[in-house]
From TrEMBL:
This is Polysaccharide deacetylase family protein. It is an enzyme of class 3 (hydrolase). The lineage of its organism: Bacteria, Bacillati, Actinomycetota, Actinomycetes, Kitasatosporales. It comes from Streptomyces werraensis. Transmembrane segments: none annotated. Its EC number is 3.-.-.-. One of its GO terms (molecular function) is hydrolase activity.
Amino acid sequence: MARHGGGRSWYGKVVGAALGVTMLAVGASVYTAQAGVVNGTPQAGASAKPAAVQRVSPTIAHASDAGPRGVNITIDDGPDPRWTPQVLDLLREEGVKATFCLTGIQAQAHPDLVKEIVADGHVLCDHSVSHDTAMDRKSEAYQSKEILDAERMITKASGGVRPLYYRAPGGAFTPHSRAVAASRGMRPLGWNVDTKDFEQPGADSIVETVQRELPGGPTILFHDAGGDRAQTVEALRRVLPWLKEEGYSFGFPVR
């Protein structure tokens, strides 16, 4: 995990993510879901009923539930009214499911897009309220608030579907933030392939990065907000068919 650098103000210098495994005694609470959920997806005909939040591992996930030839497509920082619909269209065309790491601010501003993401069978990830890449240098109370407020904002925007993962902005995890997320049923989520698409290096460079770095791990990081994402859309248009041709299948990060 690394903190993004250059290219845009949301990301700071590269630093190592905290890797401790301390768990906090943060009590699990109960959400009233508006739909039954399997892997983050509302199930038709499910009645609304309280669902207890199950604690998950606080270790940072990278593996895919699709097995050794599985890949996880992860999309960060949205939803964005211009770029998210284009990404969703591509995923539909290719029959691919992805993990969308949403900020609380963007989810609150665009609830219809959050609902569309869920309706298409993708899963949600908490990416904090404000995308503060210096979270790991701030108080534990601040870290908790960023994570838990975003969880509530995303769940409300989705119509009751909770995020299943937590990705720290820029990889700024701490033992505390991972434990808070895990206590709320959100597995901390890392990445293996950083496409650097936020730097707008060109679609060719983004595709080449995926092809070069994928042997190192299955979780690929893209962005659908925070700037012009035309290069990301074009790269996805080429990467998704290539992955299929290479015999990869698409899954979600392990829980």
